[in-house]
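Q: Here's a chain of 773 amino acids. Please give me its 3D structure as tokens.
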Amino acid sequence: MDTLSHILPLLPLRGVVIFPGTVMNLDIARARSLNAVNVAMRHGKKIFIVSQIKSEAEEPALDNLYKVGVVAEIRQMLKLPGGSVRILVEGLCRATADRVTDGVDGCWAASITELSARALNENGLELETLRRMVVSEFEKWVLLGKKISPEILLSFKDNPDAGIVADTIAGYLDVNLATRQLLLETVSVKARLEKLYEILHKEMTISELEKRIAQKVHQNIEQNQKEYYLREQIKVISQELGDAEDVHAEAEEYREKMKALPLPEEVVKGLNKEVDRLFKMPPMMAESTVIRNYLDTVLDLPWGKYDKNGFDINKAARILDKHHYGLKKVKERILEHLAVQKLAKTNKAPILCLVGPPGVGKTSMALSIAEAVNRKFTRVSLGGVRDEAEIRGHRRTYIGAMPGRLIHGMQKVGCLNPLFLLDEVDKMASDFRGDPASALLEALDPEQNHAFSDHFIEYSFDLSSVFWIVTANTVETIPPALLDRLEVIELSSYTEEEKLNIARLHLLPKEMEANGLTGKTFSITSGAIRKIIREYTREAGVRRLERQLAKLCRKVAYRIVTEKETDAKVTVKNLTDYLGPCIYLESDLRAREEVGIVTGLAWTSVGGELLKVEVLAAEGKGGMTLTGQLGDVMKESARAGYTYIRSRYKELGLKEDFYDKTDIHIHLPEGAIPKDGPSAGITMVTAMVSALTGRPVKADLAMTGEITLSGKVLPVGGIKEKMLAAHRYGVKTVLLPERNMQDLTELPEKVREDIQFVPVNHMDEVLKLALKP
């Protein structure tokens, strides 16, 4: 290797970059590196040093080494215990490895080319300026960070060689490996000085920021110590001046409140501890405000306070009839409960759950019940509640902690036996913050609610005397464990006659009063109200009806004020002058005789609805298409029905191979609304048979029922709501499973008179009754 001076042994380093002019100690332990050092010591002590790209590699590959390194001279070598050595090296010049091969001595040999600093062609004045700027910035950094001794500056500060100054400063900088390697690979002295200045400026900014943060932390600590010292002084001064008596008086006031309340022994002990803490605590401490808030909340609860709720059952019946038309079953259940209370002399109340479509009067019924049973009323809306702490409260360890909605409601009503309405319980949700429905289990369980635990109060509170009423649109989304504790009472949709009476007795007087109208200035015929019900509203409840009546009253009030008329009599003929064109046309209510279109009946959480089923048969290859956002159960019903049709092709007059040459498309309009369930089974089969045979479906006919592969018709749910919807839309005949006929007893008499109910057991009966010959 003496004859080829440009071939040197290669020494790879981990996490270290050596610059020309830098003297550094290196500990060598890897076998290949030891071999390289030994070869260098035998042949002129020159060695080529490069850095590993990935420092974590124990035995680096050639592609894990940077190409640019430093030719260094080994000044000293010291053998260490364990076979490793320590060498003192001095960087001489930059070089790049043209080719690296395995040497004969167990190390890599690198064919190198020296990279001389290209400073000769660069502007000397510009280099000198950059050198001074870098030295000045480095000096500031050393003085600010105190990481390097200032004496080091003296060794190179006045050196005129800008390249040596740049390499010396680069060696002292505490930057990452990639940045150091970039500085090593930058041959141009000017470019190297510019990069160094940029790095030093950034390091200066970081050092100044660190210093500023440290000073701020120090100031905060001093401020806290100062505040503590001043508080202690104020405390002593207050005691000398007698101001401490205010805290003492406050503590005595809390103790007097405790004596006046029939508190349980454990509550008294706990509150006394809190009062003692408050007395010993400086008034300005944040914790004292938390304790005061807690004491005020607990002592504001109606411990042992019951309202007299004597009532007369006949008077209660009159109150319920006065405020609500119909709802016979609900009223009977309330009066039964009152009768039991009279006889049993018990204050234990049931948990009633009023379930029904929107607008049928669930919330207003709860208000009427409160008046009938002579109890104070409080209400909590649970729609959208998804945090368990909304029910049980937050623990006092949290900032801004407060009791749950149940305790807050009891605090607001001021007695232990109110009527408590939990509205929209089916619209609660659950997430990572807990399940609020599960938190209600304890409050609504008659065996547990005498000792309800709120996280904020931390003591048992008696809720057993509360008359609980829960409302929901559907029981489907109420968790089974919670539903098991409720006595469900269903409020069904209103018939047209019921809506007419509700409008006459309740809605119209309310809206006339709200809009300043009297019987002299405004009147409306029963026919006009019926037209509003039929052609301007289509709903299970009466909420839209109330809005239309309010709109009518506003129009009349405007005409009276603008002197267009002195009084108004609204009839069927002039109704459109006030409310505009009809929303639902009469022709929409009755189906015409059409091929492939059948009217079904569906149940939704907002009441019953008609469900049109359209089927089209066309020449094809036997495919079946289902559209209209159908669920899996409904799709399976359609396929089962199609299989039944294939099994009865002879009786239906179809060709044997019709299913190979005919495409069936089943569509349920209002495609944006998801639909599912088995109750449209016979409806889809009837529509398919009608489309395949060309036989029209009879008019004014609706049907519901599940179908099996053999053609049997099985019972379905939601019969009452479905029949009320059929009546609302003017359907004259309904086909339904025979086993559902028992459900018709709950229907109003008017519905049973207006609709012909035909029981069916088999699909053959359905087709015979529904299709024209």
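Q: Can you summarize the key feature?
A: The mean pLDDT is 82.
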